[in-house]
Amino acid sequence: MSEPVLAGLLGLLVVLALVALTAADLLLAAIALGGYGFVMALIWAAIGAVDVAFTEAVVGAGATTVFFLAALLRTARHRSPVPGRMRWLAAVVAAGTGLALAAVSSALPPWGDPSSAPARHVSPRYLERALAETATPNVVTAVLADYRGYDTLLETVVIVTAGLGCWLLLRRDGE
Amino acid sequence: MIERDDSVIVTVFVRFVAPLANLFALYVLLHGHYSPGGGFQAGVILGATRILQALALGREALGAPWHGPRLLAVAAAGALLYLLTGVAGFRDGGAFLDYGVLPLPATPVKARYIGILLIETGVTAAVAATLIAIFDRLAVRERR
Fold first, then answer.
1. Is pLDDT at B111 greater than 70 in this prediction?
2. Domain membership of residue B111 as a residue range
3. Partner-chain contact B36 A140, CB within 8 Å
4. Topology at the third CATH level for domain A1-79
5. Is the separation of the CB atoms in A134 and B112 below 8 Å?
6. Model's pTM, two decimal places?
7. Which of A81, A125, B86, B130 could cross-link with B97 by S-S, CB 3.0 to 4.6 Å?
8. Three-class secondary structure of residue B74 per DSSP
9. Which of 93-132 (B) contact A at CB < 8 A?
10. pLDDT (tens digit, 9 = 90+) per residue, A148-158?
11. Distance CA A86, CA A92 (A)
């Protein structure tokens, strides 16, 4: 994908984030966050991370938005004012983190650089051997489910535990 | 409480789309070996479809294992399927999560292929049931 399109998507991302942050109507903020997730999915797809794009589209744009909408049903649709001092503190922390990240971003390897550290470690072995060892042409699936099966097992346990926690926290009186 | 939507357009559309979305989730799960997708994405699509049905057709339309505490059992069963597949790797002195030694009538490479499918199925069940469980709790506003 061409650079101007990517820059346009990144700009749209900033606009949607600002809308979500400033909207007084939280329904609008939830929908803007859903749009944010969708644009993010487009960006992942544009830089070749199709599996991540797929996940972002179904989770970021889909499931999370529905959860926000359902949460709005149970709470209020308009935000309550944040104390002034907290706002300044939050602004300083957010701006500081953003500036720090921007300052070190020039140290990242160029995108797609085959000689960068992550591309030289275990990735070549996975790319060369995954098909012969697991009969799975999609290397992402082979890595997630087989080579890194331990991680994915514990991620699944985390998801179930999180669901159990939500289930217990959101119970109604008398249950 | 989520009630059945009164709009004919919404209910007919959801009745039409839900089976197709479920079919797509199955495709994403089974075809994850060859194309983007896999257990997690399939689980989210399956869960989102059920949530869509609950929003449009009412919570009762979901049917048996899809609401109440049974969802938690489905989610835990998914994680358990993953864990047991991993433990089966200890067979014949193998390693945890080594699907190559699974007791299957297949070569080690094909056994790994089937092992991946087994654990992806577990992930699908865990993710879908967890999503529906959280939504089920969020959407039910008051006791009747």
1. yes
2. 8-139
3. yes
4. Four Helix Bundle (Hemerythrin (Met), subunit A) (1.20.120)
5. yes
6. 0.87
7. B86
8. helix
9. 96-97, 99, 109-110, 112-113, 115-116, 119-120, 122-123, 126-127, 129-131
10. 999 999 999 99
11. 10
